[in-house]
Design brief:
275 residues; little secondary structure; 2 domains; 5 helices; 0% strand; rod-shaped
Amino acid sequence: MDSGHGIRLARLIAFGAVLLNAGAAFAQGGRSTFDHLRTTFPLTGVHAVTPCENCHVGGQMAGTPRQCEYCHRPGSRIATTFKPANHVQTNEACNNCHRSAATWQGARYNHATVAPGTCTTCHTGFFAPGKPANHLVTTASCDSCHRTAAWVPAGFNHNGVAAGSCETCHTPGGPGLAMPSNHIPYKTALLNGASLGCDACHTSTTTFTAERMNHNSSLGNGSGQCSTCHLRNSPYLGSMQKNTLNHDGTGPDCSFSGCHRPLGNQGSTYTRWTS
């Protein structure tokens, strides 16, 4: 007899002894004399208070399944709960997601084998949470922006977004970050500023601080008044140079005064105050 065969025989004899002890305990109407851990199936949660005969039908010990799906399915010989109709469609073993023997709640789904672009197979609002009513309108797959650990934070993929449509999402109450209260009032302070979209100035889809100011051919005074933003102590955001209106002569506005371009003679239009 080789050593491997001897080891297997010893294991069979030991397991037979476990079954005999379990049978004796069952016949005596109790389990206090039997350590169920020896079967490699610990009795925890609901299993700890379930009558033995619910699983060991007819007093049969051998062959009792230890895999959840053998019992927790319709048609099982053991009367127990099974997957409801709105359960996520999966062939994974129950204990790959359900970690507690006391409750089905608190399951953590393993997305490791999910094919990219198939999120909406489950995330429809029926099998698993779907898009909320205020979700930005998009046909992109969920995993284009979201990760499997949590819905937020999400990194939106701006590829394919139409130019000038930023405010579809970037608006108060919308799904994207909205303008802060001290953003420059370009819609009222620039010539035809209301027609400008966020991307007229903001050049990056990962940060708002990468921008190039678009003055939209403003000429100073009235709509397009320079001093709205460039006046000293102006509260508006930006790296623009600021000064007082009477710092060098007087005038109703920086350019309209005749000093600075485009109406005046000093500097370069929109880029430099002086030559």
